[in-house]
Amino acid sequence: MNLNIIGYIIYLGITIIIILKVGKICYKNGNIFVSELIPNHADLCQKINQILLLGYYLLNIGYCAMTLISWEKILSIHQLIEVIALKTATIIFIISALHYTNIIILTKYIHKLIK
């Protein structure tokens, strides 16, 4: 029995929930971070944070959807759990790498502007 469709639904459900929750948390806390980097420009900080959130959503949800085409045929429940765990862990790793990369880039860019 092919369990790919069930796997797709579970995988997309888990990853989209993770992406939306992390995005919401990063957006809320990121606005404070960007405001500290660029003081006295609240509107600019809000727009930067919105662009970062939109890019985050597009990149991660798009990546999740695109990985579905590379799945092999899933034939057992054990294989289904293994594939979902591995693919979800990959998304979580990508999210954390993107988050820290954004912080590093923004910090370096702002410090360049200040000097």
Task: Give a description of the structure.
The longest helix is centred in the C-terminal third of the chain and has 38 residues, at 77-114. α1 (4-37) packs parallel to α3 (77-114) and α2 (42-67) packs antiparallel against α3 (77-114). The radius of gyration is 18 Å and the shape is elongated. It has helices at residues 4-37, 42-67, 77-114. It is mostly helical and 115 residues long.
Shape: elongated
Number of helices: 3
Helix/strand structural class: mainly alpha
> What's the N-to-C terminus distance?
63 Å
Helix content: over 70%
Could you list the spans in which at least 5 consecutive residues all have pLDDT below 50? Answer: none
Strand element count: 0
- Helices and strands, in order, run as HHH
**Major sheet attributes:** none
In percent terms, what proportion of residues is strand?
Answer: under 5%
Give the radius of gyration. 18 Å
Mean pLDDT: 87
